[in-house]
Amino acid sequence: xxxxxxxxxxxxxxxxxxxxxxxxxxxxxxxxxxxxxxxxxxxxxxxxxxxxxxxxxxxxxxxxxxxxxxxxxxxxxxxxxxxxxxxxxxxxxxxxxxxxxxxxxxxxxxxxxxxxxxxxxxxxxxxxxxxxxxxxxxxxxxxxxxxxxxxxxxxxxxxxxxxxxxxxxxxxxxxxxxxxxxxxxxxxxxxxxxxxxxxxxxxxxxxxxxxxxxxxxxxxxxxxxxxxxxxxxxxxxxxxxxxxxxxxxxxxxxxxxxxxxxxxxxxxxxxxxxxxxxxxxxxxxxxxxxxxxxxxxxxxxxxxxxxxxxxxxxxxxxxxxxxxxxxxxxxxxxxxxxxxxxxxxxxxxxxxxxxxxxxxxxxxxxxxxxxxxxxxxxxxxxxxxxxxxxxxxxxxxxxxxxxxxxxxxxxxxxxxxxxxxxxxxxxxxxxxxxxxxxxxxxxxxxxxxxxxxxxxxxxxxxxxxxxxxxxxxxxxxxxxxxxxxxxxxxxxxxxxxxxxxxxxxx
Amino acid sequence: xxxxxxxxxxxxxxxxxxxxxxxxxxxxxxxxxxxxxxxxxxxxxxxxxxxxxxxxxxxxxxxxxxxxxxxxxxxxxxxxxxxxxxxxxxxxxxxxxxxxxxxxxxxxxxxxxxxxxxxxxxxx
Amino acid sequence: xxxxxxxxxxxxxxxxxxxxxxxxxxxxxxxxxxxxxxxxxxxxxxxxxxxxxxxxxxxxxxxxxxxxxxxxxxxxxxxxxxxxxxxxxxxxxxxxxxxxxxxxxxxxxxxxxxxxxxxxxxxxxxxxxxxxxxxxxxxxxxxxxxxxxxxxxxxxxxxxxxxxxxxxxxxxxxxxxxxxxxxxxxxxxxxxxxxxxxxxxxxxxxxxxxxxxxxxxxxxxxxxxxxxxxxxxxxxxxxxxxxxxxxxxxxxxxxxxxxxxxxxxxxxxxxxxxxxxxxxxxxxxxxxxxxxxxxxxxxxxxxxxxxxxxxxxxxxxxxxxxxxxxxxxxxxxxxxxxxxxxxxxxxxxxxxxxxxxxxxxxxxxxxxxxxxxxxxxxxxxxxxxxxxxxxxxxxxxxxxxxxxxxxxxxxxxxxxxxxxxxxxxxxxxxxxxxxxxxxxxxxx
Lengths: 506, 124, 444
Known about the structure:
The complex is a heterotrimer.
Chain A (H helix, E strand, L loop, with lengths): L26 H4 L35 H12 L22 H7 L2 H4 L11 H18 L3 E3 L5 H18 L8 E5 L5 H8 L3 E5 L9 H4 L7 E7 L11 H10 L3 E5 L19 E3 L20 E3 L11 E5 L2 E5 L18 H37 L16 E3 L11 H10 L6 E2 L9 E3 L7 H19 L3 H6 L11 H6 L11
Parallel strand pairs in A: 2-3, 2-4, 4-5, 5-6
Antiparallel strand pairs in A: 1-7, 6-7, 8-9, 10-12, 11-12
Helix pairs in contact in A: 3-10, 5-10, 6-7, 10-12
Chain B lengths: L1 E5 L4 E6 L2 E6 L1 H7 L2 E5 L6 E2 L4 E7 L3 E5 L4 E6 L1 H5 L2 H5 L8 E5 L11 H9 L2
Antiparallel strand pairs in B: 1-2, 2-3, 3-9, 4-6, 5-8, 6-7, 8-9
Chain C lengths: L7 H11 L27 H12 L23 H7 L2 H4 L11 H18 L3 E2 L6 H16 L3 E4 L5 H14 L2 E4 L20 E5 L11 H9 L3 E6 L18 E5 L15 E5 L12 E5 L5 E5 L6 H4 L12 H37 L5 E3 L7 E6 L3 H10 L6 E2 H4 L8 E5 L6 H14 L1
Parallel strand pairs in C: 2-3, 2-4, 4-5, 5-6
Antiparallel strand pairs in C: 1-7, 6-7, 8-9, 10-11, 11-13, 12-13
Helix pairs in contact in C: 3-10, 5-10, 6-7
């Protein structure tokens, strides 16, 4: 019966389209091998110098004319949810507004049309952008040096851990200091990054109140500990109260403190991680500093380093000299651990982030953090009577964590609840993360939502919650009904992976 | 010794002399959801009780299967390599993982029998 | 502030609902309390931000303002206006990773198309949804070979881009793995095959290589396979794939490279997009995101991220890699440009690039004191000059000509100070070439 509960009772159409909702075939179904949307003149005949390695025919790639290309991609775009279109309450992702000014500035010729290897005398403005961004980030964090080159947050984690590993080796302790402490609530990139560098992981048990207690860390700290990796605020949206104590404990034992900066949006402009004893912290420019998520990337994850880790920063190093700025592109004569990417880093994201910082100022950055924390707590108090919190009701930072205990017996899972939100026009919050909460629902509204938007969001979740508890489970299992696709068979996709179009296949 | 013995982690070993057929229980497969891939050990691998023997992947999770007993892997089940769904459908039959040559049959005494395992599951 | 919708009245009401008199109460857990004074300016209006950044942009010499021959791993090509317009659509620019596939079919379908395009271009069976860039992709390919072959030593050709070598060596050293990298191979003369043995998991070769030489990988592939190792083929100029035998056709097991040349501007080095393709049999060891086809409950074709159990958010310390993002929007730009070109357009574009490079090479034959060292090349070659190439480039830059990359910039202290890499794409005009030649004559 519910399968017939489609959004319209109208009969099927000839095209399968429904008004403005359009089906769009694959490029490989509509493109043609000889079609092209770019006019290029064939060069006059010439003697080629390809050493016999010329291919026999053109690559069998279909093309489209320009109007067809526009139509294909515009139609695809319309199947996507986006922040410009609605709230993305994704905990740990900080889906704030992406200002278009940032796009305009990044596209200035002087930034977009310069090559990383043209003479440094011809790109001093670009180096100044990097210098100013460095100043902003180091001032906001009260840290000592910035490694600008990591291309994403996880890349930044690798960078920070590589610096730590190198610092330990420089002390002659490489053979004995091989353990990294990570809380149960950590994001998966933390243990993954550490394991890939050959560290052994040891898990810090979660406290009943959701934070990491110094007493829980103390028995694990010893001369074999290379580092502790903490997120602050943590992935449950709570400030790690014992952070300074824990940092001192680890540092006194000769270890280093890596801070995952994914949740910096709660405290930027209000507190400084360097004050807590952090040795390395990556900053997600695509979270805290508004660079667009672009459907999955590109990101940027510069790493702030303490004074004792700064000597191990990778190439390139930005140096201010008497007559200008210079990028030192190798680690000769330094203790730098090497290079983690070609060229200099995500310049396009540096310009965007700097535009954001200039627009906000220190006052605006602090306001953003305060509004982010205010909004998350507002959502918390408006939902707490209905939804269960794994660590009890207590003030959160910029994100609020619920679990699925309140849905027990209803037949509705966290997943079902999320899919029902889609029908209401909302992208769901983060689900099933962190792992310490059963059926976790992590909501991060950010500072970019109006009160009206928050109120409607809250009212919608309350309505859905009431329906779930009243036994409407069949409707939840059938959701979403109104999205471009119903639930997709992820089991099939994993059992029989089809990762590309093959000739003739639809 | 014959019979099927169980671990608290929902693995079983069905014993006949010093040969054992190892797999996961019906409770395990229902908890894991749709299984999409199984990583099996190579034939000839020597394994100790409690050591990871195989990895089961469902869409959203990956879980280790720990060997209930010590021994040598003498055969692996190609069927579940091809069609992981068989583990969901028939975990105690066609969905077996490996056949072991037991190196220490005394270890079986420390495992649960069928009734003991049923009780254990009921109390979860 | 223009980006913050909450008004003071809103904030007041929300504080009341929460039960706090002052927002500082919500920050009570922080040791040391709220920090008030940061040595940073106050917020600026949009006009002021523009002024500030335009002033910085004006201090750079963009490629459009000078005859431009700079390459060495990033190339200046024309990006059609439609590409940049489409990637700025809200639904592409401001969407998240497609973890809720029902409302992300736009992203997922273009990723599926992108994966197909990359597989076809490289001549391989499967490709992923992109890496950060070519250099990190190359290091990931090396780690993947270690996992597949279960050996932990790699051999790097002396024709590999120096930054790619540095990244691979850094990753290997810190992961405790072995790397042998051969000396810079200016004329593709190294005997790589003699160095291939049973200790290696992989051999990494670039073509067109850093010095512009084109390499036939077939014999190398055979030698690798005879010793149970994988051949990893690297490229930094994706347009070359339009004219040259594909690495897959030459026997490569993993093909990885930089996709920036198609759809993406120079951007001073980033963001770029790594292309990564391999054989079907290695699917489960491939790093990065993967998009797969499936159906929904109404049996309609759809797409989802798949095989996520390789990835960090599930496997955690047993993940194939720690990667969390791909280069989404850059991959989209690549895909749109590739769609506009089609195979035919790409071939033609590649031919124009090669023709321009050949024309330039022939003109340089008239210049005393320079020598093109390459027997074969695509759109970039190595020029041996009289004297110091870096000083020459600086002199020409001061005269408004961006003449290329001195090899010493990436390989200092290698005795290669008289070598200059010159790239020539469809963006170079006859006038550009004439100017370069005249300036070189004048300077030497």
